[in-house]
Amino acid sequence: MSRPTLALIGATGAVGTVMRELVSTREDIWGEIRLVASARSAGKVLQVRGEDVVVQALAPEVFDGVDIAIFDVPDEVSAEWVPIAAERGAIAIDKSGTFRMEPDVPLVVPEVNPLDARDRPRNIISTPNCTTLSMMAAIGALHAEYTLKELVVASYQAVSGAGVAGPARLYDEIEALAGDRSVGQAAGDVRKALANKLDADSPFPAPIAFNVVPWAGSYKDGGWASEELKLRNESRKILGIPDLKVSATCVRVPVITTHSLAVHARFEREITVADAHRILEAAPTVVLMDDPANGVWPTPVDVVGTDPTYIGRIRQAVDFPNTLDMFVCGDNLRKGAALNAAEIAELVATEL
Amino acid sequence: MSRPTLALIGATGAVGTVMRELVSTREDIWGEIRLVASARSAGKVLQVRGEDVVVQALAPEVFDGVDIAIFDVPDEVSAEWVPIAAERGAIAIDKSGTFRMEPDVPLVVPEVNPLDARDRPRNIISTPNCTTLSMMAAIGALHAEYTLKELVVASYQAVSGAGVAGPARLYDEIEALAGDRSVGQAAGDVRKALANKLDADSPFPAPIAFNVVPWAGSYKDGGWASEELKLRNESRKILGIPDLKVSATCVRVPVITTHSLAVHARFEREITVADAHRILEAAPTVVLMDDPANGVWPTPVDVVGTDPTYIGRIRQAVDFPNTLDMFVCGDNLRKGAALNAAEIAELVATEL
């Protein structure tokens, strides 16, 4: 058959940039690749597979003849345009939160639940939130053999999770504060120094340089941040455990890209560190870095820009039965976003 | 009676500097205040209570006539010198890890277990690790009414927890990297940029700018970091719960001063957010900042340099009975170190 046509919607954003790099460097199974963005970006010329491609404005006609459309756009844009793409015959792979929890839309991580991608009555497949995705390949591998019961997660989320404005703001703040070796030592001094040099317009609700900010997403009932509930609800759906117990606290940290998570995971039966090592060493998209006596564990600056999910600091919880404590890192723009969508597209393309 | 004589051992370090500020600004109950440090720092002139004081070299004679000696020195220095101070008649308040878990040495947080300070057969009182202390005033208040059963903690620890070399290194790394708006986007690029500009001698086992590092302390059996086991064992002793279940993952973050902790705490009976608010609002050394709908929660840049323990993001865990998720911040040099020692000294001084 002819090679499938791929459309990338939101091609100019942080994730879109990584997506263009991925389709240019992974095995090339695609026929035409269309780049689509808002009217503001239409007409721009961007490179894909070494060739110049003119960005088209989002319109119903751009989906004509498209086999697979990957959407990386805000929730409200997905809500409007994903059904239009699906109606016009494209399989829509959507990175937004809009359809993830709908019962007739599968939520897919190819290493964990690839078969779910086949059951897509609306021709829509969702890809999870970047925080959920940053741990899922590793947690899914452990679950497959030991059956997960509970997750308590604290996140260390990179600024690029907030889009291109996130790194821009952190670089701005670092430049504004660098050279002052007294800053960060008195209450409010970072705020004051930033107010003198930068405008107040930040994607973050507090200074992010020399700080950590315990908030990601929008306000939900009970004091939860939307990102924390996504991690709970999406983990349940991907793993197929409707009664999985999950508590998460999401915290933004001054890291450019790569989300990290401290994970406390209880399983149905006893699991040792050696058991976990055996499973994770065999998991094809997971890299085990777990030799703390020799300083070996993953950190964001060593993970960023790479595809796997990294895991280390695996300990059997002394006081909790059947429980491991772990530290997981994943590039939130790659496996956490563009890569997972590309992998779903490749998975679905094999059926076409 | 005459005012007690106080000796500060380790007066020139990061905590010693805060200690001198505290005894200079809190209610002045002291007679003579002696400053003591290593031979290398002896002869330096430092200010206390607005007066110049010459630093004395550590020697048995410096304890003659001393009522209370506060030690902020490395473990091995405490091991040698704390017993000498106690033998010479001083009550030794020790910030090191050396004596904390010894059964005949009380481990004291004045808000939580003040009476323990009275039972000190060796004339030694230990003050906890800064990570444990950063949450203990708040957790202790909740425990007093609802009885704590389990703690799962992930930390966001400031660089000054590693001593004066910690902030110096973070400022160095920030200065070396500031201005390069591509750094932090490819695996190893931060390491490479730092290797070109700074020497390899860091108090941290990985880059700390644009990074988080899942390691604090020394290697212990089972893959644990010493800081994680301290949090477990010290919490049990301070709270008087020998079978408290604790799992902790300790992570260093690029914050100058103020440790933060994501705390998942199970109690003996149901506790609502309103219950927690009532208790924490009444706790004299705790500041409740918990109105997330209006962006109110604590962050390190607003807490640093102040005395209280700050708490926010209090949520009733949806899936876990009797459990709260919370975010706690405390200045690791003040309540986490110097302030707690000063408060113990003041508590003990009232008995003299």
From TrEMBL, chains A, B:
Annotated phosphate binding sites:
100
UniProt cross-references to InterPro entries, sorted A to Z? Asp_semialdehyde_DH (IPR012080), Asp_semialdehyde_DH_beta (IPR005986), NAD(P)-bd_dom_sf (IPR036291), Semialdehyde_DH_NAD-bd (IPR000534), Semialdhyde_DH_dimer_dom (IPR012280)
Family indicated by similarity:
Belongs to the aspartate-semialdehyde dehydrogenase family.
Q: What class of enzyme is it?
A: oxidoreductase
Annotated protein name in UniProt: Aspartate-semialdehyde dehydrogenase
Coiled-coil ranges per the record? none
EC code: 1.2.1.11
Residues at which NADP(+) binds: 12-15, 40-41, 160-161, 332
Which parts of the sequence bind substrate?
157, 252
What this chain does, per the entry, is described as:
Catalyzes the NADPH-dependent formation of L-aspartate-semialdehyde (L-ASA) by the reductive dephosphorylation of L-aspartyl-4-phosphate.
Oligomeric and partner information = Homodimer.
Q: Name one GO molecular function term.
A: aspartate-semialdehyde dehydrogenase activity
Give the UniProt keywords, A-Z. Amino-acid biosynthesis, Diaminopimelate biosynthesis, Lysine biosynthesis, Methionine biosynthesis, NADP, Oxidoreductase, Threonine biosynthesis
Q: From which organism does this entry originate?
A: Nonomuraea mangrovi
The encoding gene: asd
